[in-house]
Amino acid sequence: MGEWIGIDRRARRCYGFDEVALVPGMQTINPNEVDTSWEIGEMKLKIPIIAAAMDGVVDVSFAIKMGKMGGIAVLNLDGVQTRYEDPDEIMQEIVNATPQEATELLQKLYQPRIKDSLITKRIQQIKQGKVPAFVSCIPQNAEKFGRLAQEAGADCFIVQSQVSSAKHISTEYKVCDYGKLCQDLKIPVAIGNAVTYPMTLSLLELGVDAVLIGVGPGAACTTRGVLGIGVPQITATVDASAARDHHYKRTGKYVPIITDGGMRIGGEICKAIAAGADAVMVGSAFAKAEEAPGKGFHWGMATSHANLPRGTRIHVGTTGTLEQILLGPAKVDDGSQNLVGALKTSMGSLGVQNLKAMHDVEIIIAPSIQTEGKVFQVGQRVGMGK
């Protein structure tokens, strides 16, 4: 499988969002009558769109507002929200920094230690808003923070790293035992990130409640440039969904996969779900919301790394309210608003009743899908030409 790239070396062709398209079936459905719900653990959620655990995207008030709309926003337990009593002041420093100052400032501001009391406080603040509290941290903090999060009333605990594997080798620090973590916690545990069939399957076999898919596709992530690793999201999602389906046939346990990163607009969310995702995690689209704490700025979780940042602070601007971005009505023409409406309309046009049925729609390789007939949009930098 794959093409020769030199003597004794083959490379597999992989695909991203811009290279494929979805094909309508034999029926259509009223978009208002499709079901966009999905499940993680014993929770059933109305909207399969999650705001990423990034400090420029999610704070307590953002998580509450998105939760009341039926979505989920994940709070980063390794960020400024748990290091500072008044995170708003710190966020303003980051927003005001010049591009030349930004990375060094982030490295400095992320040095103060994380306070256990603030982990508890932030989760309880979200719960007081009467919405689910989803939180995230890195593997090194997972055992301790998972316990704290559960005690504080969190509904789901996510462990995220650049690449997550069932077997991690280190002599310098204690390795997180994902299997034991899943057994010890009584709330759903999601692990990420993975991009291959065997890696996804190995994580599923540990007893996780969801797996996040994606290495390096995020708008603020520079992993692919700094480290040269990653798999385009369509192929990564298809491969991961095959692992999920194999695990389900063998065990009878259906575990959702969440495509994480690389989706800016509604059409890309639709393609991710058609490729097999049960839900998607989005960062930059929500960083554009008026309610986002980054005020139009967005940076990845690895941007503040002390020795080798794998992210950068980018300016995405503020284009509308969270409600406009998630539920509409859209005020822009590029597909970055009313993401739920886009998903429902796509499902209706494809003739699928629910997300699992969407996994079976026809996907074609279509390199001209973004440009065919769009010369005026490209020339005038509107719609799909932006």
- Dominant shape: globular
Secondary structure tally, helices? 15
Largest sheet: 8 strands, parallel, barrel
**Beta-strand percentage range:** 15-25%
Radius of gyration, CA atoms, in whole angstroms: 20 Å
Low-confidence stretches: none
Indicate the mean pLDDT: 92
Measured distance between first and last alpha carbons: 36 Å
Explain what the structure shows.
- With 386 residues, this protein is of the alpha/beta class.
- The protein has one domain (15-385): TIM Barrel, CATH 3.20.20.70.
- The chain is built from 15 helices and 16 strands.
- It has helices at residues 60-68, 87-96, 99-109, 116-128, 139-152, 178-184, 197-204, 223-226, 233-251, 266-274, 284-287, 322-326, 339-350, 355-358, 375-380; strands at 3-6, 9-11, 20-23, 38-40, 43-45, 49-51, 72-76, 134-137, 156-160, 189-194, 210-213, 257-260, 279-282, 297-299, 313-315, 362-365.
- The strands form five sheets. Strands 6-7-8-9-10-11-12-13 form an eight-stranded parallel β-barrel, surrounded by six helices.
- Helix 10 (266-274) links the parallel strand 12 and strand 13 (279-282).
- Helix 4 (116-128) packs across helix 5, helix 7 (197-204) packs across helix 9 (233-251) and helix 10 crosses helix 13 (339-350).
- The longest helix has 19 residues, at 233-251.
- It is globular, with a radius of gyration of 20 Å.
- The mean pLDDT is 92.
